[in-house]
Design goal:
Blueprint: E1 3-9, H1 10-14, E2 20-25, H2 30-35, E3 43-49, H3 60-70, H4 76-82, E4 95-96, H5 99-105, H6 109-117, E5 128-131, E6 137-140, H7 142-151, H8 153-163
Antiparallel strand pairs: 1-2, 1-3, 4-5, 5-6
């Protein structure tokens, strides 16, 4: 997962000059590769390119550690599939909408029929299915799933940090 930050010198900024540089994370040494050359010790992140929000005063060491852990994932969607406790996320715990899902989750065809009849299956060709808040089935297409993942990126990152005992950013 690509994470780039534009780190600016706070002292120079307060003097009226915006200086800084773009850096792709992770780096081997935050001090040497990002902060050396700044007039003072204070910095801020004035811009970033990442699939989740990064605050101006986020600790660069913690962000770099997170970026290092995220190198195993290409997208925020890949990270979603890795998360163990999806119940804390605003994204439904989805399954592939296929015959195996019904065989795995229902004891009889009648139980499956009830869950479908009282649920919302908009299109039988949708890629995903999940249990809604009432325990009935609801379908979701790829676009809806991707949108849900994108809108929940910050929560997915928070859950990843929690599950992997990383410092919060």
């Amino acid at each position: 997962m690509d994470i780039k930050v534009f780190v600016s010198d706070l002292g120079a900024y307060n003097s009226g000059t915006l200086t800084g540089k773009w850096t792709a994370l992770p780096v081997n040494d935050v001090q040497k590769e990002i902060l050396d050359g700044f007039a003072g010790e204070e910095y801020f992140i004035s811009d970033y390119d990442a699939p989740f929000n990064i605050g101006e005063y986020t600790n660069l060491e913690d962000l770099n550690e997170l970026a290092s852990e995220l190198t195993a994932f290409n997208t925020i969607k890949d990270l979603y599939w890795y998360i163990d406790n999806k119940q804390k996320l605003p994204v439904p715990d989805v399954y592939s909408f296929d015959e195996e899902f019904f065989e795995e989750h229902f004891e009889s065809p009648a139980d499956a029929a009830r869950a479908v009849a009282f649920g919302i299956v908009r299109n039988w060709d949708d890629e995903y299915i999940y249990f809604n808040e009432n325990g009935n089935l609801q379908s979701m297409n790829e676009y809806e799933f991707e949108k849900s993942i994108s809108e929940s990126a910050d929560k997915i990152i928070e859950q990843f940090i929690l599950e992997n005992n990383l410092n919060d950013i």
